[in-house]
Specification:
heterodimer, A: 259 residues, mainly alpha, 10 helices, 0% strand, globular, B: 259 residues, alpha/beta, Rossmann fold, 2 domains, six-stranded mixed β-sheet, four-stranded antiparallel β-sheet, 10 strands
Chain lengths: 259, 259
């Protein structure tokens, strides 16, 4: 157990050495999204409204932006470092030789990614509160928020672990265009999932996108007045995806370090 | 009468067949029997592709045997890898230092992975930095170390948790003559303290200088195993005083190019 803590401490040390870099990497995309869609657009009269026209677009976007920040953090904190550490330098080796079962070493990475995801979510809140020209109409549901804050970052980190063990270093640029961008654009982040009703095929296809459940989860927890999936469905899907993708990620890690 | 202590390293009919991928199955290690005594410096000698690194991989839990058994301090490597990892220190062929940490942190976090407390890790790290003449580089980025310094730091890291057996995989490959002599000094010092060491090499000189016993490997099998002196007597005609291990090596493995 102390070895597990040591692995987490190492990641904390590496991350805390560059706080500015951490902030920039965490906030740049959420800031730009919120700035363009909820500050620039209303100011230049290029309006976007929530489906049905009642709520401001800020209210639609806030849960989506938090979800994107959490998801991207899973990739930044877990997938990209692992791709490097598994690569030419094999520098993950010293950690693999730590006296812990190999799955526990993978779980330490997963846990660290989830912790970074929670921090990312908390950092994004002030941005979405301060930047928009039209304020978001939030009605925070605390129990739901805590549940989503526990499960969402864990799922994002599991996706990061899975990708990090699957992708060779030369394929990282492809990772972004083939995996990350489609997931973030089609993850019910800019619209509630229920609003896709007129494009039924897309609504069904995107059910396979794990980010949909993170975004719908934050929607249910922050802006419950907008259409959202039921809490039972969201939490069950988050847990099921986290379990399945996390399992695949841990197996992938084992395959990469043992031959 | 008490039982004699178990061999530091013991293998019986140890095998590794690599399958999978598109190519045919490759037998890397083909029935190896070894017994290394506590306190012994043992050399595994062989041309490239002989199976040395795969053998070390199995003894250090990173390669899963497909047949036979391997024990470290009497503990089965395949059945109890976590307990084995506690007892071994590993210096890999390539530089696997953690590039995100400083010189000293590479040691202190290694201690943490092995469950040492912060103070104990720091004390051991400083002790080893002094011993390996790295104290003035303690806060340096590991990317700035020369090959010889990186090698010394890897040996220091492998010793930090006081392993029963130290493994070095081709430790002097790529080192300049001064660094190689310095490494030999270090290994002789460790031997004098009773450290059990298994090293692989294709430098005959290194094996002759350092090892009490040498196993010559090729095509996954051990062709000969004895002290350097006995090997020269047994396998080279003419005056044994003039024979070198290189003569033994060529006599056993032939002159054909391997790659």
């Amino acid at each position: 157990m102390r070895g597990f803590g040591g692995l987490l401490l190492r990641d904390l040390r590496v991350q805390s050495r560059q706080p500015v870099r951490f902030l920039v990497r965490t906030l740049s995309q959420p800031f730009l999204l919120v700035f363009v869609f909820t500050y620039v657009f209303p100011r230049i009269g290029q309006g976007l409204r929530a489906p049905g026209g009642g709520e401001s677009f800020t209210t639609v976007l806030v849960p989506g932006v938090v979800a994107i920040a959490v998801f991207i953090k899973g990739v930044q904190a877990v997938a990209l470092p692992l791709v490097q550490e598994f690569g030419y330098t094999r520098e993950v080796e010293d950690r693999v030789l730590a006296p812990l079962p190999v799955p526990a070493i993978a779980m330490a990475k997963l846990t660290w990614g989830a912790i970074e995801g929670v921090v990312a979510a908390l950092l994004v809140f002030p941005v979405v509160a301060l930047v928009p020209a039209e304020p978001a109409n939030l009605a925070v549901q605390w129990p739901q928020l805590l549940a989503v804050l526990a499960l969402g970052p864990f799922l994002a980190s599991a996706v990061g672990l899975f990708l990090g063990t699957m992708v060779p270093p030369t394929q990282v640029p492809l990772l972004f265009s083939v995996v990350i961008l489609p997931i973030t654009f089609l993850g019910a982040t800019y619209y509630p999932w229920a609003a896709l009703e007129p494009i039924r095929w897309l609504q069904i296809v995107t059910l396979a996108n794990p980010l949909v459940y993170i975004a719908e989860g934050f929607r249910m927890a922050l802006t419950p007045q907008l259409p959202h999936m039921t809490s039972g469905l969201v939490l069950a899907a988050l847990a099921a995806f986290a379990g399945a993708v996390g399992y695949a990620g841990v197996r992938g890690f084992q395959h990469r370090v043992l031959s | 009468m008490a039982d004699p202590p178990p061999a530091a390293i013991s293998t019986r009919d140890l095998r590794k067949v690599f399958t999978g991928g598109s190519g045919p199955a490759v037998t890397a290690v083909d029935g190896v029997d070894l017994d290394v005594r506590p306190g012994e410096v043992f050399g595994l000698l062989g041309p490239n592709g002989a199976g040395k690194t795969t053998t070390i991989g199995m003894l250090t839990t990173r390669v899963v045997p497909t047949g036979g058994t391997a024990r470290i301090d009497g503990i089965d490597v395949a059945a109890r890898p976590t307990r084995v990892k506690r007892r071994i220190g590993v210096v890999s062929q390539t530089n696997t230092l953690d590039r995100s940490l400083t010189v000293r942190e590479n040691l202190t976090f290694h201690g943490r992975y092995f469950g040492l407390g912060g103070r104990e890790s720091a004390r051991r790290a400083d002790e080893l930095l002094a011993r390996f003449r790295l104290a003035d580089r303690r806060d340096a980025d590991v990317n700035t170390l020369s090959g010889g310094m990186a090698q010394r730091l890897m040996v220091a890291r492998a010793l930090l948790h006081r392993p029963a057996v130290l493994f070095l995989d081709e430790p002097s490959t790529g080192l300049d003559p001064q660094s190689r002599l310095a490494l030999w000094e270090v290994l002789r010092g460790l031997h004098a303290e009773g450290q059990t060491i298994l090293l692989t090499t294709h430098s005959m000189d290194e094996a002759d200088q350092l090892c009490e016993r040498v196993a010559i490997m090729d095509h996954g099998r051990i062709l000969a195993l004895d002290t350097p002196t006995e090997l020269k007597k047994a396998h080279v005609e003419g005056a044994p005083g003039e024979a070198t291990l290189e003569d033994v090596f060529i006599a056993l493995t032939g002159r054909d190019l391997r790659e």
